[in-house]
């Protein structure tokens, strides 16, 4: 089959690789009908996530048709149309039973590698996201093996198009959880979203669906800002305005009640702190550039929430923890517990509250993906979201 594989830092390619097979009786094989490039994939392209190996199949946003099931799979049958959450969960461990699916105890066979990296207990496995997260083959391919097939795949039984439900595998629930983490008081609270990429766009729209009185989106890319503005958000271009001053002015001096950092470890910015972040990251002295996180902490109102769906990879310095402490901020973060949100969000799509296709700017085949990885990373050609057809 064809698949997009990691060939080294700043290099991905399309290769012919063996078709996946059932390894366990709880597995399923899915023929992928649609897949996508995620902003988190760019951290792999740029070489900032350790434990990648040449030939690893990328991709964690995908859906398709079940073509084979293991003998112990009870809830799926051949021919079922499914979306597959990006995180892999067993459904039986204590975190899974509590709804913390991304923290599964049993889905990451390489958890000790992650624990050595982070110095603490790791989360569960992820599709196509390094050996530290289980070494699972990803879904930017024509077929994929899906472990714990009675837990992860979510059947789509309506006639909704792939593009309407594909993002339920990651970026829509990720933005929704980011907004849920804010405990928004409907009709009162102001939410600021740093980053107008796909997760930022869904964070902003989720905050609106949850009743935020006002949503402000901060970015520097005109096409992304225009997309947020079209949804009724106030926008701030941080290259043209002082972000902290603009947010105070927009909120009567108090700052946003909640701030969502939808950027993560490769934040752009300006000033001495941003320049130092970039230098340390380029020299591999640090995993993370944290301009967006600093701005989030400094801008947030007293007693507010800093919600962090953006991916971070290691130890962080130059963090204004004194400001966070003085203001009594709440931090909520982590990989998305995708599975728990799917019934609600599918219902919102079916009910017409949101059409997730708004975020798509580019459609292509797998063969075009290597170039589009760079187009997406470099924010060229108005690229916000790329959807791939594995069979085109």
Record keyword descriptors for this entry.
21% strand, seven-stranded mixed beta sheet, 29% helix, 17 strands, 392 residues, 13 helices, Rossmann fold
Q: Helicity, in percent?
A: 25-40%
CATH architectural group of the largest domain: Alpha-Beta Complex
Output the CATH homologous superfamily of the largest domain. Answer: Medium-chain alcohol dehydrogenases, catalytic domain
Report, as a whole number of angstroms, the end-to-end distance: 13 Å
Could you characterize what this model shows?
The protein is an alpha/beta fold. The chain has 2 domains: 2-170 and 336-389, Quinone Oxidoreductase, Chain A, domain 1 (Alpha-Beta Complex), CATH 3.90.180.10; 172-333, Rossmann fold, CATH 3.40.50.720. The protein is built from 13 helices and 17 strands. It has helices at residues 39-45, 94-97, 111-118, 162-165, 171-180, 198-209, 222-230, 243-250, 272-282, 291-299, 321-327, 338-350, 369-378, and strands at 2-8, 11-16, 28-37, 61-69, 81-84, 87-88, 125-126, 143-146, 154-155, 190-194, 214-219, 234-237, 258-261, 305-308, 330-333, 362-365, 386-389. Strands 3, 4, 5, 8, 9, 16 and 17 form a 7-stranded mixed beta sheet that branches. Strand 11, helix 7 (222-230) and strand 12 form a beta-alpha-beta unit. Helix 5 (171-180) packs across helix 6 (198-209) and helix 5 crosses helix 12 (338-350). The longest helix is centred in the C-terminal third of the chain and has 13 residues, at 338-350. 51% of the residues are buried.
């Amino acid at each position: 089959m064809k698949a997009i594989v990691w060939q080294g830092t700043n290099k991905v390619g399309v290769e012919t690789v063996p078709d996946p097979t059932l390894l366990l009786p709880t597995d399923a094989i899915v023929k992928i009908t649609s897949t996508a490039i995620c902003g988190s994939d760019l951290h792999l392209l740029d070489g900032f996530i350790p434990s990648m190996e040449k030939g690893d199949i990328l991709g964690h946003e995908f859906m398709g048709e079940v073509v084979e099931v293991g003998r112990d799979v009870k809830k799926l049958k051949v021919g079922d149309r499914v979306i597959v959450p990006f995180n892999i969960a067993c459904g039986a461990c204590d975190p899974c039973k509590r709804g913390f699916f991304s923290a599964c105890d049993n889905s990451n066979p390489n958890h000790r590698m992650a624990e050595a990296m982070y110095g603490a207990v790791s989360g569960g496995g992820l599709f196509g996201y390094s050996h530290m997260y289980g070494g699972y083959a990803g879904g930017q391919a024509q077929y994929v093996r899906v472990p714990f097939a009675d837990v992860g795949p979510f059947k789509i039984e309506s006639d909704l198009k792939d593009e309407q439900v594909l993002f339920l595998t990651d970026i829509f629930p990720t933005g929704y959880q980011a907004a849920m983490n804010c405990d928004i008081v409907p009709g009162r609270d102001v939410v600021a979203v740093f980053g107008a990429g796909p997760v930022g766009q869904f964070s902003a729209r989720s905050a609106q669906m949850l009743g935020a009185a006002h949503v402000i989106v901060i970015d520097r890319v005109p096409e992304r800002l225009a997309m947020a503005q079209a949804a009724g958000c106030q926008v701030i271009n941080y290259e043209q305005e002082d972000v902290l001053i603009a947010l105070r002015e927009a909120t009567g001096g108090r700052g946003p009640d909640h701030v969502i950092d939808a950027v993560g470890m490769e934040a752009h910015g300006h000033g001495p702190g941003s320049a130092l972040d970039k230098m340390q990251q380029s020299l591999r002295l640090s995993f993370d550039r944290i301009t967006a996180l600093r701005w989030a902490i400094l801008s947030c109102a007293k007693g507010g929430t800093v919600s962090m769906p953006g991916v971070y990879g290691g130890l962080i310095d130059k963090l204004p923890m004194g400001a966070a402490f003085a203001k009594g901020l709440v931090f909520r973060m982590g990989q998305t517990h995708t599975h728990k949100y799917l019934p609600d969000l599918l219902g919102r799509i079916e009910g017409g509250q949101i059409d997730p296709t708004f975020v798509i700017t580019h459609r292509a085949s797998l063969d075009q993906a290597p170039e589009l990885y760079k187009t997406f990373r470099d924010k060229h050609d108005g690229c916000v979201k790329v959807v791939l057809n594995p069979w085109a």
